[in-house]
Design brief:
This protein is an alpha/beta fold and 212 residues long. It has a single domain, classed as 3-Layer(aba) Sandwich (Rossmann fold). The protein is built from 6 helices and 13 strands. The strands form 3 sheets. Strands 1, 4, 5, 6, 7, 8, 9, 10 and 11 form a 9-stranded mixed beta sheet that branches. Helix 1 packs antiparallel against helix 2 and helix 2 crosses helix 3.
């Protein structure tokens, strides 16, 4: 569905079903938040075909056996504030010990350019798979800038997860960071004159936290 080898559109029927409800203007804050978490969990499951692992010895009721487990600190979660916070619990469902960093950015309403106001990351994140979370990949400016912040701090294995993306957002990030794996649940039609994704779902942050 895209011409970029680092971009994956997760065409899964359960995800499509939940996104349909997510888009609905009648979906309330509680259900919206739960759906974002559920979709994120499905995205993580579909995206992590490979993850750093280690061999451990496990004593079953019958014998000692060698088994495979996810390596310590294999994954770190970095939501872009504020909407990205809604996706964190979805990752923690599958990686409950994943440490969490935060990147705070806001978009200039006139220029649509991103500006950083906060960045705090876990120690040693450069040795983990850093999952950058932002439910809406619109212009791609904020996500691209956030990836730049992670790279500046030594991160070499970065994944971007967005629930809904616009074509221009995909293009911006994929071309600026061809080494970053981008996973989105669905690719929408376009942006409107205010930089919102169409058909989209409105402002994800407002719908997650009940603000306007």
């Amino acid at each position: 569905m895209t011409d970029y080898p680092n971009v994956t559109i997760l065409d899964h029927p359960l995800i499509r079903h939940k996104i349909a409800i997510l888009r609905d203007v009648r979906t309330g804050m509680k259900e919206f938040r739960e759906l974002v978490e559920e979709i994120t969990t499905l995205m993580v499951y579909e995206s992590f075909k490979t993850v750093p692992t280690k061999k451990v010895m496990v004593q079953t009721p019958l014998e000692l056996t060698e088994q495979t487990m996810v390596a310590d600190n294999a994954v770190a979660v970095v939501p872009i504030l504020r909407a990205g916070l809604g996706m964190v619990n979805g990752v923690h469902t599958l990686f409950p010990t994943a440490r969490v960093g935060h990147i705070g950015m806001y978009r200039d309403e006139e220029t649509l350019e991103p500006h950083e106001y906060y960045c705090k990351l876990p120690d040693g994140i450069e040795n983990s798979v850093a999952i950058l979370l932002d439910p809406m990949l619109a212009t791609g400016g904020s996500a691209s800038a956030a990836i730049g912040f992670l790279k500046a701090r030594g991160c070499k294995n970065i994944m971007l997860m967005s629930i809904i993306a616009a074509p221009v957002g995909i293009q911006t990030v994929a071309e600026a960071h061809p080494d970053v794996k981008i996973f989105v649940s669905t690719l929408d039609r376009q942006l409107n004159e205010n930089g919102y994704i169409l058909p989209g779902l409105g402002d994800a942050g407002d719908r997650l936290f009940g603000t306007k």
